Known about the structure:
GO terms for molecular function: hydrolase activity, acting on ester bonds. This protein is an alpha/beta fold. It has 16 helices and eight strands.
Amino acid sequence: xxxxxxxxxxxxxxxxxxxxxxxxxxxxxxxxxxxxxxxxxxxxxxxxxxxxxxxxxxxxxxxxxxxxxxxxxxxxxxxxxxxxxxxxxxxxxxxxxxxxxxxxxxxxxxxxxxxxxxxxxxxxxxxxxxxxxxxxxxxxxxxxxxxxxxxxxxxxxxxxxxxxxxxxxxxxxxxxxxxxxxxxxxxxxxxxxxxxxxxxxxxxxxxxxxxxxxxxxxxxxxxxxxxxxxxxxxxxxxxxxxxxxxxxxxxxxxxxxxxxxxxxxxxxxxxxxxxxxxxxxxxxxxxxxxxxxxxxxxxxxxxxxxxxxxxxxxxxxxxxxxxxxxxxxxxxxxxxxxxxxxxxxxxxxxxxxxxxxxxxxxxxxxxxxxxxxxxxxxxxxxxxxxxxxxxxxxxxxxxxxxxxxxxxxxxxxxxxxxxxxxxxxxxxxx
Length: 430
Ligand SMILES: *[C@@H]1O[C@H](CO)[C@@H](O)[C@H](O)[C@H]1NC(C)=O
Ligand SMILES: *[C@@H]1O[C@H](CO)[C@@H](O)[C@H](O)[C@H]1NC(C)=O
């Protein structure tokens, strides 16, 4: 191998830091995670708001260790929680939580708010919710707090290296266009035109997310909207998925994939990754027994046909075994169904995750972050700065640094630090 002396020196520095960096806390080692969107991914922001879109009363959260509700629309963990598990990170705190300060900021943040959509007028019946533009403003505000904690360049890097999830669009149909017969939007637009309008607004939102520093964004399309217990009860015939809502999802999802491709080619990099939520959910909805569910039509918690009417609350029917149900409440999957979805995200083929799945993203990004860290160390050998120690120890557990760790003691005839010092002083004299 033909390394330059400075490359060898920096490798040694990285090696030493890798040993020291082994002591850093897990939240620091894992990449940050940011979540935007609606109730499918809200971790409890709406608890802090005067809104009817909330999940802060039993039996929500019944299968968590505390058995207490947290604001998640689930019996237990939700999709972002399970993604955090895969990152080896703590779950993200809601942005409005008073606990989100200090070191907790390093984990990331969850900006999602139940009831919101792409459009500002989606979810107006829930009154006070965090619309997507406001979520993005909060993301900016978050970045200032993070800068105060670790410095501007560190904060920018942590945001650039983060994983981002955004889940939007379902409510623009369910809680807007199809909310009531002859809704304002349905009188204004034929469905295909409405979908085109949604997509053009979504494009701006994603562009803004990129401008704010997001560089790896998983964008979920809408699920099978017509198949949720609420729609089976309200609109479906004989337990068949409602064809009109299914048609809406069928128009929306492919156009979403198109704009993600367009954004990626404009940027020149695979920043946006589309997650085929329709396919992931449809898998177990169409074939519940194959996934160990007894039903995908009846919600565990609710009332009326399919337990699909109204909200899940303390007076509702409640199933004894949540693992046997695909749907927890009239709109939201159980933790077990969420786990199926995330497993498709992790290892699914391009049919589910395009252009690549989450396990590929994690390994590709870890390698490129390590290479970038090594390059920074090289640059800093020439111009040392105060930040240097902290910056390199952040990425210390990456595979490339580990490779250095193994390589150097074995193949170098002299102890590497001695040799590096010689090269280093030699280079300095030139
Ligand atoms: C939604 O509201 C935000 C902030 O109030 C505004 O900037 C944005 O243009 C609005 N979007 C649409 C589509 O009207
Ligand atoms: C998804 O992940 C698995 C391994 O976890 C991998 O074998 C497969 O090739 C990946 N697929 C794509 C399309 O990235």
